[in-house]
Design brief:
Blueprint lengths: L9 E5 L4 H12 L3 E6 L2 H13 L3 E6 L5 H15 L4 E4 L15 H29 L2 E6 L12 H21 L4 E8 L15 H13 L6 H12 L10 E4 L7
Parallel strand pairs: 1-2, 1-4, 2-3, 4-5, 5-6, 6-7
């Protein structure tokens, strides 16, 4: 145990089948937490849970679309049944858009990105809050993005969804700080994960965004570096940190 206060805690990590979510689940487990791995990818979620257990941790996997209320309810019920407590929620699951500018963003792209990136974490946070409030404690960490801090890091849909996450974090911090709840976010810069961008070859947005990103980013980060920041924000070591959006980006936000 590294002293960050996660021993015995019940933790939910979404999007934990791979990338930042997987690294976060494993790091929490190494620090003594019990981890529920939630993802749409059954094989990946179950593999992460097995990795946690192989390392001596406690984990279970719940598979489903977190923008559906029934799946959200199952996640919360299973966590409480298995762990007896729910101390930390990491809203990490998300998808990229096609880097589309607003004028070339169709309804399907807009609705899918907002549903997964903004509505799903809203639903899960709303479901978790009554249990955290009853305990008068809880930490909620969101994976935001550089696209939540600026306009030139992604397309219109993704940028809007991540700016929405920033608003949720700040509102949660203000509304519930007197009841033992903290809400924060990391804003990753380019990170080595499996996320893909399916940009149209003649689209306007990718050309604009590509030039801005290429001119300003530093090195490529690792999922483990993002996980370290998430686990810190959830920990007692960050007990006075509330409503913060922490860039984890090798200084990109400072440019």
């Amino acid at each position: 145990m590294s002293g960050t206060g996660h021993e015995g805690r019940g933790v939910v990590v979404t999007g934990a089948a791979s990338g930042i979510g997987r690294a976060t689940a494993l790091r929490f487990a190494r620090e003594g937490a019990k981890v529920l791995v939630a993802d749409l990818d059954r094989a990946g979620a179950e593999a992460t849970a097995k990795e946690v257990e192989a390392a001596g941790g406690v984990a279970l996997a719940v598979v489903g679309d977190l923008s559906e209320q029934q799946v959200v309810d199952t996640v919360v019920e299973r966590a409480l049944e298995s762990f007896g407590r729910l101390d930390v929620l990491v809203n990490n699951a998300g998808i990229m858009d096609r880097m589309s500018a607003l004028g070339e963003t169709d309804d399907a792209e807009w609705e899918r990105v907002l549903r997964i990136n903004l509505t799903a974490p809203f639903l899960l946070t709303r479901a978790v809050l009554p249990h955290m409030l009853a305990a008068q404690r809880g930490s909620i960490v969101f994976t935001c993005s550089e696209a939540g801090l600026r306009g030139g890091a992604a397309g219109a849909a993704y940028t809007a969804s991540k700016h929405g996450i920033v608003g949720l974090v700040k509102n949660l911090a203000v509304m519930y700080r007197g009841q033992g709840i903290r809400a924060n976010a990391v804003a990753p810069g380019p990170t080595a994960t499996g996320i893909q961008v399916d940009a149209g070859p003649d689209a306007h947005g990718p050309g604009i965004v590509g030039g801005l990103i290429g001119a300003n980013i530093g090195r490529l980060g690792s999922a483990e570096e993002q996980a370290a920041a998430i686990v810190f924000l959830a920990s007692d070591a960050a007990s006075f940190v509330n409503g913060a959006v922490l860039p984890v980006d090798d200084g990109w936000a400072a440019v």
